[in-house]
């Protein structure tokens, strides 16, 4: 009897379970360091800042948001600091940014976000936000 390899369109047999390995739940856990979660949160905050506060994400705008994270047993507490444009409804914009950051960080890391603290470093007028470095 001859056998032929399966072509790309044909279904193949599922892989055989590994012999001698413990069940997946007993093998271990994936650990994401605090600094990695913080970097993810800072990037997500930058995106939320440009979306919610109408701040362009280019180099001539405000300084990039910074973030710190504390991961404990499957949940994370985040602290984000950023600049916002003036005038703006600070409470509404901050609430939306906090929600965006919590949802996206949870989605990307699989961690439960228990708290997002947002600090507004500075309020920038249109003249300050457009001012960049001169070369």
From TrEMBL:
Pfam families: Asp23 (PF03780). It comes from the Bacteria. Signal peptide: none annotated. Transmembrane segments: none annotated. InterPro entries: Asp23. Residues 14-25 have a biased composition (Pro residues). Residues 1-30, 47-70 are annotated as: Disordered. Belongs to the asp23 family. This is Asp23/Gls24 family envelope stress response protein.
